[in-house]
């Protein structure tokens, strides 16, 4: 399968301080560490839009493996969203989905909140799934829920000075019943985390 570079893209602002906006781009078919594990790229742009530097985030690059292990088929990068500067360190942070993660049950899905350094490496990571991030205190993910199919930043809707997320769960049984044949997945059950 192809890497599917730029399957998801998010603007990161100017994280390296050179006056040009930088991007995060996913490659959910990347095979670093196993088949279809997935990856992200932080693309440092010049003002003319050319890439002047890039940092890959995968099981082999970008310090991600210091925090979590991805498995074959997880498809990290299914979705990407810029979160703003969550830690207040001057660097934009991001969220990304891994819809086929198997925490709790097969293809239940997961979402990662990644705090970045100005060079694009992962400084800190928090996984949200049935096993991490306290999500299971509120809801249960089931087989083929594909939590992380899409993620979006909502800003601070709860008033606690922390950005909030909406994460779509896309249950393929539900989609199959609605569409007859599952070809694409729409956000049907948004979950605020």
The gross shape turns out to be globular
The CATH topology label is Methylamine Dehydrogenase, Chain H
Major sheet characteristics: 4 strands, antiparallel
End-to-end gap: 32 Å
- The gyration radius over C-alpha positions equals 16 Å
Query: What's the arrangement of strands in the largest beta sheet?
Result: 1-2-3-4
CATH superfamily: Integrin alpha, N-terminal
SSE topology string: EEEEEEEEEEHE
Based on secondary structure, the structural category is: mainly beta
Query: What share of the residues does DSSP label as strand, in percent?
Result: 35-45%
Summarize the SSE layout with pairings.
Elements: E1 5-13, E2 22-27, E3 40-45, E4 51-57, E5 76-84, E6 93-98, E7 110-116, E8 122-128, E9 150-155, E10 164-169, H1 172-179, E11 189-192
Antiparallel strand pairs: 1-2, 2-3, 3-4, 5-6, 6-7, 7-8, 9-10, 10-11
Quick recap:
The chain is mostly beta strands and 193 residues long.
Could you characterize what this model shows?
This protein has one helix spanning 172-179; strands at 5-13, 22-27, 40-45, 51-57, 76-84, 93-98, 110-116, 122-128, 150-155, 164-169, 189-192. The protein is mostly beta strands and 193 residues long. It has one domain: 7 Propeller (Methylamine Dehydrogenase, Chain H), CATH 2.130.10. A four-stranded antiparallel β-sheet has the order 1-2-3-4, with no helix packed on it. Strands 5-6-7-8 form a four-stranded antiparallel β-sheet, with no helix packed on it. It is globular and about 45 Å long. The two termini are 32 Å apart.
């Amino acid at each position: 399968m192809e890497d599917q570079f730029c399957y998801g893209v998010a603007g990161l602002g100017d994280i390296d301080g050179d006056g040009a906006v930088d991007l995060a781009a996913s490659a959910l078919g990347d095979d670093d560490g196993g088949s279809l594990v997935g990856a992200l790229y932080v693309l440092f742009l010049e003002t003319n839009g050319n890439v002047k530097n890039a940092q890959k985030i995968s099981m082999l690059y970008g310090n991600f493996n210091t925090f979590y292990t991805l498995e074959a088929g997880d498809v990290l990068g299914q979705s990407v969203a810029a979160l703003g500067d969550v830690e207040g360190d001057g660097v934009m942070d991001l969220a990304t989905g891994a819809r086929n993660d198997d925490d709790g049950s097969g293809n239940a899905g997961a979402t990662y909140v990644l705090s970045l350094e100005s060079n694009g490496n992962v400084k800190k990571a928090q996984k949200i799934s049935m096993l991490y991030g306290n999500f299971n205190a509120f809801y249960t993910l089931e087989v083929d829920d594909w939590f992380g199919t899409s993620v979006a930043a909502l800003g601070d809707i709860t008033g606690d000075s922390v950005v909030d997320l909406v994460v779509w769960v896309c249950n393929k049984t539900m989609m199959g019943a609605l569409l007859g044949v599952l070809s694409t997945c729409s956000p049907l059950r948004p979950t605020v985390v």
